[in-house]
Amino acid sequence: VPMHNDEHCIEHIERVNPDLVVFGGTRIIRGKILEFGEGKGGVLNSHPGLLPECRGSASPAWSVHEGIKIGSSCHFCSSDIDAGDLVGKREIEVRRGDKCGLSGVGRRAG
């Protein structure tokens, strides 16, 4: 679906009826999706920053700007932005001149 908070996404989720809803991305998850998750195993999200230090959708850029370590977190969603229970997080070492992919950051993060 183009936008996970629209009616097409919740219709799909309700039709599939999963025990756990899993998202990855930088959009805020709200409304009916959170309500659906409350009755199941929850809504799990992959976040492109180290929580709780780096909340919001521009986490990698904010990390660089503020000198915060770069990484990724996995957390359960709540009605507050990037504030649900943390499942885990991993710091990713980034060096000047790094390129994305298997020859750079991706190899060290793997």
Describe this structure in words.
- The chain has 110 residues and is an alpha+beta fold.
- 27% of the residues lie in helices and 19% in strands.
- It is built from 4 helices and 4 strands.
- It has helices at residues 7-16, 32-38, 59-66, 105-109, and strands spanning 21-24, 43-47, 71-76, 86-91.
- A 4-stranded mixed beta sheet has the order 1-2-3-4.
- The two termini are 29 Å apart.
**Distance separating the two termini:** 29 Å
Oligomer: single chain
Shape: elongated
Helix percent band: 25-40%
Strand content: 15-25%
Average pLDDT figure? 83
Strand arrangement, major sheet: 1-2-3-4
Report the major sheet: 4 strands, mixed
Question: Can you tell me the residue ranges where pLDDT is under 50 for at least 5 consecutive residues?
Answer: none
Please trace the helix and strand order, writing H or E for each element: HEHEHEEH
Number of helices: 4
Question: How many β strands by DSSP?
Answer: 4
Derived structural class:
alpha+beta
* Radius of gyration, CA atoms, in whole angstroms: 16 Å
